[in-house]
Amino acid sequence: MLYDIFPIEEEFPQYFTVRSLDLLTQYVFIELLELLDLNWKPYGAKESCNVIHLMPRFIRILSNPATTTNDNFSITNTATTTNNSISVDNSKEHNIESNKLVVCIGDSSDNNTVIGELLPVHVIMRHWLKEALTPVINMMELSSIQRMTTIEWSNHIANLRGTLACFPGKKPSTIRIDQLDRQSVTGQSNETILIYPLIVHMTYTPMKLSLTREPKYKSVLKNFMKLQYLMMNKPRISTSDRVQLVQLASELEEMEHSGVHRREVTVEISCEGFYRTGIRPDIPQYALNLVSLIAHLRFHKSLESLENRLGYTFNDKSLLHVSFCSAGLYMCMYICTYVWEHVQHRTLFYILLLYI
């Protein structure tokens, strides 16, 4: 799956605190996704603020918004969100600036224009905290669950399908709920034996693990590695060897991306001890992409800082990028930086750059 990311400059958001953003980041990235080595603090700093803060944007649709005399929206009716089912208490009126928290979806001249409100961060925190304190299945509901019909049970768990469930303290702690099955120890419904329903999680084995059991893939991989080893030790490489190596490499790549050999795996685990999160898989998917994006942006900002410290601008940024991705070239760049800052010898510095 490929993503196109475009930076869009917007006005500074409102109704948030840095502490609340850090708490949401820690909950999603550390508690749920378990990215324990994630560090967005400045280099060498232990007790400081992160260099970047992420603010989630959830929108609830406003039905029949009333425009007041001061061009603000007065929200007094019930409304629900379109993303991850975040509910908002509308017992009080909320006056919000139309150019700050209200977004319009559609043509403004059309009567069917949908108006939505960007939720403040404290509303998101309140919803996620409420969900985190709610078990997937309450123990007091076990007896009534066994007496439900199939349709009633399906409607009862409709909001749980596709959401994430968390078991604090377990590794891994979070799992996606694809289905909830109720059954007794014997596999039959029995009102005298009360057990927790089973969380059904369906996934696929990694492609590498699936292909290692395929005889054809193992044979092609063996021939590829053997030919590659022979080419490394040959004094002269022929054209036929190069063509054969390219053919084997393309065949391996085709088998890896075909997806035919992937095996479906179904995991069943008791929902006892699991708590709801109110989060669907789209949020972790975007979060993992943000980790790679932020690391990429920080890396290039570090390269700009290095150029400012050296007082030298590289014409080809890609070469500078590659130099810090290779261990040997990274050591050469480290020596260049040391020479420039401590020795102050321009001739030696440029000689080292030419060597790189």
Structure description:
InterPro entries: Helical_CED_Drosha. Residues 142-277 form the Ribonuclease 3 central domain. It comes from Schistosoma margrebowiei. The chain is α+β, with helices and mostly antiparallel strands and 356 residues long. Among the domains are: 136-185 and 193-205 and 262-273, no CATH class; 207-261. Helices cover 41% and strands 13% of the residues. It has 11 helices and 12 strands. The strands form 4 sheets. A 3-stranded antiparallel β-sheet has the order 1-6-5, with no helix packed on it. A 3-stranded antiparallel β-sheet has the order 2-3-4, with no helix packed on it. Strands 8-7-12 form a 3-stranded antiparallel β-sheet, with no helix packed on it. β2 and β3 form a beta hairpin. α10 packs antiparallel against α11. The longest helix is centred in the C-terminal third of the chain and has 29 residues, at 282-310. It is flat. The two termini are 36 Å apart. The model is unreliable at 64-83 and 87-100 (pLDDT under 50).
